[in-house]
Amino acid sequence: MPQIYKNKIIKLLKHRDYTPLKLAHLAKELGVSSEDYPQFKQAFENLRQAGHVVVGERSLVSLPAMGHKIIGTFRANPRGFGFVVPLEPTAHGDLFIPPDKTAGAMTGDIVSAKVVKKGKRAGQMRSSGKVTEILQRGQSRFVGTLSKTDAGWLVQPDGTSFFEFISVDDVTAKNAKQKDKVVVEILAWPTEKHLARGVIVEVLGRAGKYESEISSIIAQYHLPYEFNDDCLAGAREVVRRFDAADAAGREDITDKVIITIDPPDAKDFDDAISLEKDTEGNWVLGIHIADVSFFVPVGTHLDVEAKNRGNSAYLPQRTLPMLPEVLSNGVCSLQPNQKRFVKSVYLTYDGLGKVLSRRFANSVICSRQRLTYAQADSVLRGRTRGIKPEVVRLLKDMETLSRSVERRRRENGMMHLDLPETELVMDKAGRVIDAHPADDSYPHTIIEMFMVESNEAVAALLDRLNVPFMRRIHPEPDALAMKELARLVRALGCSLPRTPDRYAIQALLTAVKDQDNSLAVNIAVLRSFEKAEYAPLHVGHYALASTHYCHFTSPIRRYADLLVHRVLEKYLRGEKKLAEDRADLTEIGKHISFTEQRAEDAEEELKTVLILQMLSDHIGDELDCVITGLAGFGVFAQSRKFGIEGLVTMDNLGPDKWSYNSKSQCIIGQRSGVRVCLGRALKARIVSVNVPARQLNLIPVEPLAGAAPTTAKTKTAKKRKNKRVIKRSGRRR
Fold first, then answer.
1. Are 456 and 409 in contact (CB under 8 A)?
2. Which residues pair with 535 in a beta bridge?
3. How many whole angstroms from its chain centre is CA 442?
4. In what order do the strands lie in the sheet with 283-290?
5. Which of 143, 328, 449, 696 would be 646's cystine partner, CB 3.0–4.6 Å?
6. Which helix (H) or strand (E) holds 435?
7. In the predicted model, is pLDDT for residue 125 greater than 70?
8. Which residues contact 544 (CB under 8 A, 6 or more apart)?
């Protein structure tokens, strides 16, 4: 808990709207209870002694002032300037670095910078400086497209971490050709006069081809791909020794009606469901999860590799599994009509969806049928052809229980963000040819509710046993983030209390459902929340309104779940020592939180690349968009169909002088008075596409402001201005 308070204190003090408070008021702002205040005070004292916070005049708490020199991480902008994010947060935030003062630093570099100017901008203290030394390069390998120019062979890097061309020599050594996608190792970093110089270490294929693009994303994000020989040999040996008939110590429930529901292209079936009524008429829900811990012992080559990968990565038409496929798609996967080992969670419910009891067991199952979400939805809508009668009955019972559970969880404060996902339609060559909203039918909610209930039940058990374990934590958002959210949604035309609680946010999300501003509001709520992560800290899960929470239901694809399975296995065996080392769990939690984010970023970037490639053949086409972001240089508009953002620059909004007002969260036309706010629907036309830079440029189909009308007043003003110009011109002559 002290570490959580340290994080909360620093995050609050870094907020742009924070004004120095006394310690007691700071605790109140963070919602610290009287019983937790001693821990909070100790955490604060640790920060103060380390110099991370200071107590100034009138006992007001703030971050230390920015000195004349700082060390931090450089973050570049495509326009040439950048920012240094201090390793130790300061009261003045990030340091602005002008384009001619970056010293060739690139995104991710650790740099030393000198503060050369301090001043106020928009009422807030702002500092600018120059990079004096690059202490450590963030990366030395880049992926990009090779081209031949008058200046020689150049590589244009992909993405947004490095914007300058890289000069390369001897392209024939790797048989690289014009328009090939390549990996470049930097030999000499860029200077004011010279481009970076590098050598091609790998040729990935022709730029624009699916295999080349997916290989480039794998290389760019350093995603583990091929398994080493030791892992593959270990996996094959596990499969060879597996005998489903040897189920000693497991409950045999192969005669029960059990099904799986997954996406149509899934092969790694982690979870299966059973549902019956007991002698008292209560629901008994069985959540049966693949027992991966049986196949992957601690410390083996398989375990080490799974920990390193952290999770499976799901890219368009390609899966990079955490475990070799003979396990993930084979003996671990809960395939129909196959005996499989599982860990079972049994939850007994009353008619209102309230949990009456919990039970845990090692079991062996035999799935009766494998369904897709679309098939399950068809059954619930009455189309049952080809589905076994007992499966039809099970699905209808599952829906009944799920709606009760969902109702109870929403009453307890669970929140659901409506952020529609896009499903790409691709041809056989891997090219995107269309897109449509991803299926969000009710069977998705059924499985989600049951998985959340299972995760919560296991976490509650381990908490009762008072053992450290890997949790899925989602801290409560801080007060300033909530105040900023309230101000933002009011600018979107919605009402929200100044300091909203979870129920006020619930009501907001319900009110904007199916409205034009729904996407913008949901994005604003998401951005106001903390990021969920893995850690052994007892924090709970804010969005799910859950005090005890972990990930348990996907051990084939998440290492966090496998760790939890191992603790549960010790409990089921009756072992006395259940505890894992908390320090080890903390480090593993940081690592697997990173690998999770890396996989999400890689998936998102590959989707963006494939969509941009398609849109590059549709210059001039119109897109139905909604404005999702505002900046001093323009607006970001997201395509409703493709889920991709494009930029409309200020000068393309219409014939007016536009300015961004951060307080009202609008861009305002100075002459017309037109206000462009988040959530506004926008018909936009594609102007240009830059696939390597991941940029889509748009213009409104209709200008957002017409030409300023000429009135008698403006005519008189123009005449006066012309007379002044003539007089000044005469004097110059």
1. no
2. 471
3. 24
4. 251-252, 355-366, 339-349, 283-290, 271-277, 259-262, 369-372
5. 696
6. strand 432-437
7. no
8. 409, 414, 415, 452, 456, 474
Whether 534 and 473 have beta carbons less than 8 Å apart is answered as: yes
For residue 337, count other CB atoms closer than 10 A to its CB.
9
Mean predicted confidence (pLDDT) in 300-314: 97
| DSSP secondary structure letters along 136-173 | E-S-SEEEEEEEEETTEEEEEE-SSS--S-EEE--GGG
Share of the chain above pLDDT 70, in %: 94
Please provide residue 559's backbone torsions phi and psi, each rounded to the nearest 5 degrees: -70, -30
pLDDT of 689 > 90? The answer is yes
The answer to whether residue 653 scores a pLDDT higher than 70 is yes
**Cβ contacts of 86 within 8 Å, gap of 6 or more:** 66, 70, 71, 72, 94, 95
Write down the pLDDT at residue 1. Answer: 57
- Give me 209's structure tokens: 């081809």
Strand partners, 639: 625
**What token pair was written down for 14?**
């870094």
Q: Which of 50-59, 218-227, 444-453 has the lowest mean pLDDT?
A: 50-59
**Contact 160/107 with Cβ under 8 angstroms?**
yes
Q: What angle do CA 634, 637, 638 make, to 5 degrees?
A: 155
What pLDDT is attached to residue 119?
59
pTM (two decimals): 0.87
CB contact at 8 A, 221 and 330: no
CA distances 495 to 492, 503, 593, Å, are 9, 13, 34
The pLDDT of residue 726: 39
Lowest mean pLDDT among 48-52, 218-222, 365-369: 48-52
Rounded to whole angstroms, the Cα distance separating 107 from 110 reads 9
DSSP 3-state of 85: strand
On whether the CB atoms of residues 336 and 367 are closer than 8 A, the answer is yes
Helix (H), strand (E), coil (C) string for 386-409:
CCCHHHHHHHHHHHHHHHHHHHHH
Q: Say whether 616 sits in a helix, a strand or coil.
A: coil
Q: CA-to-CA distance for 53 and 56, rounded, in angstroms? A: 10
Structure-derived torsion over alpha carbons of residues 490, 491, 493, 495, reported in degrees to the nearest 10: 0
Residue with tokens 């030999």: 187
